[in-house]
Amino acid sequence: MEIIKVKDYDEMSAKACSYIIEKIKQLQAPVLGLATGSTPEGLYKSLIQQYNEQNVSFNDVSTFNLDEYVGLENDDPNSYHFYMNEKLFKHIDIEQNHIHIPNGVAENLDNECQDYEQQIMDAEKVDIQILGLGLNGHIGFNEPGTPFSSRTHIVDLDESTRKANARFFDSIEEVPKKAITMGLDTIMQSKEILLLVSGASKREALDRLLNGDISEEFPASILQQHEHVTIIADKSALEG
Ligand code: GLP
Q1: How far is the centre of ligand 1, averaged over its atoms, from the C-alpha of 159 (Å)?
Q2: 36 lines ligand 1 (CB under 6 A)
Q3: What is the Cα–Cα distance from 4 to 1, expressed in whole angstroms?
Q4: Which protein residue's CA is at the shortest distance from atom 11 of ligand 1?
Q5: In degrees, to the nearest 5, what angle opens at C-alpha 226 toward C-alphas 204 and 28?
Q6: In this predicted model, what pLDDT tens digit does every residue of 111-152 receive, in sequence order?
Q7: Residue 123's pLDDT is what?
Q8: What percent of the chain has pLDDT over 70?
Q9: How many CB atoms lie within 10 A of CB 104?
Q10: Taking the model in full, what pTM does it have?
């Protein structure tokens, strides 16, 4: 794993932005894996800015998002469909049919998981998967205890994850109890992974990811087994 240490959140976002743009320029039909949460917001802002300055086009880019809440309609402000549209897609020249996000209101959620997994495989894998890090080591919505062999599946969200994400909702009761997420093996199939970590609250999780045992009890530890991981982390996430 390569670790790029940066000063703060803004530098993390700027570095991640140049990293992604570089990739987009190298590849003919880049497939990006996207994350939500607070961590990649700055990256998305920077990508929009670079697009506005005509330094990048997303015309040939396809995207697969990591996860979506079960039960939230696409236009629900807390859905990841809404998040992605507001924070990135509606501002850039990406083709609508190149965007993939699990459908959390599908009638048959198991079929939705299988279809989503198939679409990723049909795209011949994700070229670069952006990840954030959950406080309990979750990546995507793969909570502790998720088998390393998992593919796209339905999860019961941990109470700690619901609490952490309650800041986006009016109250914790409104935070869905389930989500669809790419599995750990799905994530590991990506050709390359870019993990972004910022802030002192993530320090313990990052330390465990880098130095702890590889264990299903700490999902992000699986990244130690991936051959091409780059971590962009700021000082407060890295230093005790
Ligand atoms: C969320 C998302 C993850 C995200 C993580 C960290 O629950 N499902 O994709 O990476 O938790 O979120 P944040 O970046 O807001 O700290």
Answers
A1: 14
A2: yes
A3: 10
A4: 134
A5: 120
A6: 999 999 999 999 998 999 999 999 999 999 999 999 999 999
A7: 94
A8: 100
A9: 24
A10: 0.96
